[in-house]
């Protein structure tokens, strides 16, 4: 383990985070040593992904066996170390804001975090695919690059995207549209959240990626002339992606989409609909996306847009985004 990975000098800069104590660092080291005894190359993503999958399948094949909590935690630590190695400046701290303090990996500025121990433990409840760990490492490293830091192997992340006319870049943060607001565009109200990592219970990087890509797709749809947006839901089981549309009134169709998602048994899901954002006046247009994993609060994001105007309504104009995407907050779990 390199000294800068868990050095007490690397202070957490955000509320709810603190540097690891020497005892906590020692505990992580003991978990790393446990994995190294398996002769796994803990610096090789493919080797670690193989070990994670084999450990899960071995446990799943033993009906009635208790979850090997210590082993899962040890695997979470080496997965987190791989994220640290691929996100320059990222480091381990202790997250104290949740119901139980847990080690997490944060970006250099402390404003984005991932929870590898919690995330890998959640997979023991819903399943581990052969490439889950490698996809997680790539997505988590991209998420921590919120300040434009370079990451490695980002292109190797599993595709969590809906069908669309163009392929967006990997969603490391909120997708941004650079169109300047027009004079009649309302300013976006502040919600206090700048990135998904600011949320009280951030979803996993894969779920964040799924939600942000769905937001990009929803905005593309309305800017392409689909106004209002036809509600859609998307599920991902770690291997396959399924998309379903729900025509009709946006509020009623969103409820139908949530019911469809709940029955899917997926590892992650999103629901997207035409709605309003906090502080909007009646008649304001926005696309809203809700994303969550099993049993975890959803992430709600949105983006306002101005629909097209015809010459009969004054000066004709094409549809355009209004302002920037925003994180609205969190809702009930979708799954």
TrEMBL record:
Residues 1-21, 161-208, 309-335 are annotated as: Disordered. Pfam families: DUF3806. It comes from the Bacteria. Coiled coil: none annotated. Residues 166-191 have a biased composition (Low complexity). InterPro entries: DUF3806. Residues 73-136 form the DUF3806 domain. This is DUF3806 domain-containing protein.
């Amino acid at each position: 383990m390199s000294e800068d990975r868990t050095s007490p000098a690397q202070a957490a800069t955000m509320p709810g985070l603190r540097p690891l104590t020497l005892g906590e660092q020692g505990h992580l080291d003991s978990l790393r040593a446990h994995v190294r005894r398996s002769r796994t190359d803990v610096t090789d993503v493919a080797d670690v992904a193989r070990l994670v999958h084999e450990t899960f399948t071995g446990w799943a094949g033993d009906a009635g066996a208790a979850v090997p909590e210590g082993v899962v935690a040890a695997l979470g630590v080496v997965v987190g170390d791989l994220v640290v190695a691929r996100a320059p400046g990222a480091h381990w701290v202790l997250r104290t804001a949740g119901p139980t303090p847990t080690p997490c990996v944060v970006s250099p500025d402390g404003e984005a975090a991932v929870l590898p121990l919690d995330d890998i433990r959640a997979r023991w409840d819903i399943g581990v695919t052969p490439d889950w760990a490698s996809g997680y490492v790539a997505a988590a490293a991209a998420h921590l690059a919120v300040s434009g830091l370079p990451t490695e192997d980002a292109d190797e992340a599993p595709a969590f995207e809906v069908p669309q006319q163009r392929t967006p870049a990997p969603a490391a943060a909120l997708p941004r549209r650079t169109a300047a607001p027009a004079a009649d565009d309302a300013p976006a109200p502040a919600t206090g959240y700048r990135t998904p990592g600011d949320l009280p219970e951030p979803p996993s990087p894969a779920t964040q990626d799924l939600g942000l890509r769905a937001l990009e797709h929803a905005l593309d749809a309305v800017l392409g002339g689909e106004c209002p947006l036809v509600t859609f839901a998307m599920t991902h089981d770690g291997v396959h992606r399924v998309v379903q549309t729900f025509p009709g009134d946006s509020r009623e169709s969103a409820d139908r989409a949530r019911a469809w998602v709940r029955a899917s048994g997926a590892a992650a899901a999103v629901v997207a609909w035409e709605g309003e954002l906090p502080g909007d006046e009646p008649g304001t247009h926005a696309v809203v996306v809700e994303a969550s994993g099993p049993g975890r609060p959803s992430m709600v994001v949105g983006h306002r847009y101005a629909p097209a105007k015809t010459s009969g309504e004054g000066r004709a104009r094409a549809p355009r985004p209004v302002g920037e995407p925003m994180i609205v907050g969190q809702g009930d779990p979708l799954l």
